[in-house]
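Need residues for this backbone.
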């Protein structure tokens, strides 16, 4: 299965990119958005593409070289690839000033696609998928240094497991699943994605009409916890607004309700400005709007995209423009 970039045209168009602009793709992934941004900025522009997974960086670098050779283009000259976590976007741009002349508040657009590369889901090293037997890893960088899903499943307490399944996976049977994990790991460690998925299938009634695997929400919770996704996203959002120039835009594509709620609330707060009670006739809080919302309700994939890519069904794009 090849990776299909979600909301490709919508996200690139939402950034309102012109030739000569400086744009940051904070989540390179398979590079679909990045490639279109490289075309938009022209020869005088720059695209900074960030990814925590070194393999994603290397694969896209190879892809750009092949495109340049085959089409006599020079996309590589306008591309800056950075292997890092997008939560460090402020430090990344600061360091690029001395090397590439990109100033702190001179960024014209920032894009973040919070989905996973299909290669990460398919590659057993990452241990992401319940559809194949793989070690319980789930780290975005594919490494085993630091917290892994194995440690969470085999070492955390019942209360801790139930809490993350409920809060981060929105799993209604969180307590029952946590109890069964504790029971089974007393007999032997849970080492693979299949072992965990089968445990959940044994507990939950499968609804074939929903099209959603019973383990989906638990796996979501584990990925969020292992990669600190929500905390890192919050840091990224706060730093991104500071990097944008006036009229610069931030666009974020989320794939589940927790991410989308965080992005929505952040943008609305930054757009709100004054927080004084309505009964006070004069503002005393001195809070100013930092952005204006583009498409207040967000942008969803159209019918054609949904027909071609089921993975896009939960995607939502939200955009804010720096005032």
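Answer:
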């Amino acid at each position: 299965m090849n990776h299909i970039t979600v909301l490709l045209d919508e996200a690139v168009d939402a950034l309102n990119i012109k030739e000569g602009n400086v744009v940051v793709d904070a989540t390179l992934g398979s590079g679909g958005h990045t490639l279109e941004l490289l075309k938009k900025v022209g020869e005088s522009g720059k695209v900074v593409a960030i990814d925590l997974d070194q393999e994603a960086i290397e694969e896209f670098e190879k892809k750009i070289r092949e495109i340049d050779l085959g089409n006599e283009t020079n996309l590589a000259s306008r591309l800056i690839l950075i292997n890092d976590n997008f939560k460090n976007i402020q430090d990344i741009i600061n360091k690029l000033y001395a090397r590439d002349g990109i100033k702190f508040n001179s960024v014209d657009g920032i894009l973040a696609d919070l989905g996973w590369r299909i290669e990460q889901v398919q590659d057993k090293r990452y241990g992401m998928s319940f559809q194949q037997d793989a070690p319980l890893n789930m780290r975005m960088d594919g490494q085993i240094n630091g917290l892994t899903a194995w440690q969470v499943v085999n070492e955390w307490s019942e209360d801790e497991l139930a809490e993350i399944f409920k809060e981060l996976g929105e799993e209604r049977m969180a307590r029952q699943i946590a109890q069964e994990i504790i029971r089974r790991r007393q007999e032997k460690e849970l080492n693979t994605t299949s072992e965990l998925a089968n445990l959940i299938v044994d507990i939950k009634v499968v609804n074939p009409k929903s099209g959603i695997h019973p383990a989906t929400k638990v796996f979501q919770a584990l990925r969020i916890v292992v990669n600190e996704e929500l905390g890192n996203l919050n840091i990224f959002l706060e730093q991104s607004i500071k990097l944008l120039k006036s009229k610069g835009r931030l666009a974020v594509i989320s794939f589940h309700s927790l991410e989308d709620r965080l992005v929505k609330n952040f943008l609305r707060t930054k757009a709100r400005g004054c927080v004084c009670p309505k009964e006070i006739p004069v503002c005393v809080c001195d809070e100013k709007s930092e952005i204006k919302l583009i498409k207040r309700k967000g942008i969803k994939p159209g019918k054609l995209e949904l027909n071609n890519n089921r993975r896009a069904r939960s995607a939502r794009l939200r955009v804010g423009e720096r005032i």
